[in-house]
Design a protein that fits this description.
The chain is globular and about 60 Å long. The protein is an alpha/beta fold. Helix content is about 45%, strand content about 5%.
């Protein structure tokens, strides 16, 4: 005997079936409750604003394309990779700096940045411009954990620490700001030995982060540092092309970091450690700019729109320059659009496993 159903019952049944189908068809998002960042200017969202160093970006024209059009301490005209990655993970569109007095533990609970522009793996690198060394970033992270426990309770805080995605982007300054400029490290180590020295520091940092509860960690590699506008401007006798030696060092160092990732995944069975390679995608942007809708890849926008000999912007960005056409914002740092391209690439490659 058939049982009659009312229109409302049929509607409810259809909605129930639809919800089941959607649950099967749509993959569940990984549980990434927070993005926690360590590193240098490639990921610093403003910590250098609050320390005694000349290396700051809290002045115009930095931030001209950030929401509100004001400088934040990010070394870009807008957002940087952690911001885009946080948003891609379904979290907030910007990751606040740990030292930002306007932010509280409520803001930090879903993401916080400990990075400091100008720093490196090597303590000697952070001493050059008096910025926050990597070991101090980890000490700040320990304080953050205590704050998190007081705010959310031990159980919830432990869950966030365990499930958060940890982004590391560091190392360029060790070579370009330290090894190749000052005689200290270059007199102690060959470049290959210095690479090994830095890899050892990276290993120790990841082990300590693991001991503190971190499990999902992205170890970022070096960019094609010989192609940064500042380095190309130094290579004027060779037509201002990329410095091949520096790019080769970056590739060699990245290979060693990849080897470290493979080994640590065997030694730490609970770790979800990935190597995030920005080298290839940034090199594509530099050598094939038209493929990404860009113009000349050698140009840094501020201040003159041509090669910049200084590390930072020295004036206002030209008003006629379209920001979506700019690959590099200053002599070292990609524009917001390039940052987004790099972040999208990482989300589709190394970080993809945190989306499924």
């Amino acid at each position: 005997m058939m049982i009659a159903t009312s229109p409302s019952q049929k509607t409810m049944q259809c909605l129930f079936l639809l919800s089941l189908l959607m649950a099967v068809a749509v993959p569940s998002r990984a549980k990434v409750p927070a993005v926690i960042v360590f590193g240098d200017s490639s990921v610093d969202s403003g910590n250098n604003n609050l320390i005694q160093t000349i290396l700051k970006s809290n002045f115009e024209p930095y931030g001209r394309d950030f929401e509100g059009g004001h400088p934040t301490g990010r070394f870009s005209n807008g957002r940087i990779p952690p911001d885009f990655i946080s948003e891609a993970l379904g979290l907030k569109p910007t990751v606040p700096a740990y030292l930002d007095p306007r932010s509280t533990i409520k803001d930090f609970a879903t993401g916080v940045c400990f990075a400091s522009a100008g720093t490196g793996y090597d303590n000697a690198t952070s001493d050059v411009l008096n910025v926050i060394p990597l070991w101090k970033q980890l000490e700040n992270y320990k304080v953050y954990q205590k704050m998190l426990r007081r705010y959310l309770g031990v159980k919830k805080a432990k869950e966030i620490v365990r499930e958060a995605l940890y982004l590391m982007s560091i190392g360029t300054n060790d070579f370009l700001e330290n090894y190749y400029i000052f005689p200290g490290r270059s007199s102690e180590y060959t470049v290959e030995q210095y690479e090994d020295f830095l890899v050892g520091i990276a290993e120790n940092f990841i082990q300590r982060l693991y001991e503190l509860g971190g499990r999902k960690i992205s170890l970022g590699g070096l960019p094609p540092m010989g192609c940064l506008p500042l380095e190309r401007s130094k290579n004027i006798m060779s037509g201002s092309g990329c410095i091949d030696e520096y790019n080769q060092v970056a590739m060699d160092f990245n290979g060693k970091l990849q080897g470290l990732v493979v080994r640590l995944k065997k030694e730490m069975p609970e770790i979800k450690l990935v190597f995030s390679d920005s080298y290839s995608i940034l090199l594509d942007v530099i050598h094939q700019p038209s493929s990404f809708g860009f113009e000349s890849a050698a140009v840094a926008c501020c201040a003159t729109g041509f090669f910049e000999m200084g590390y930072l912007c020295g004036g206002t960005a030209p008003s006629h320059v379209r920001m979506e056409q700019i690959r590099f914002w200053d002599s070292f740092h990609p524009s917001q659009r390039t940052n987004q391209i790099i972040s999208d690439h990482l989300m589709k490659t190394a970080l993809a496993e945190f989306l499924v």
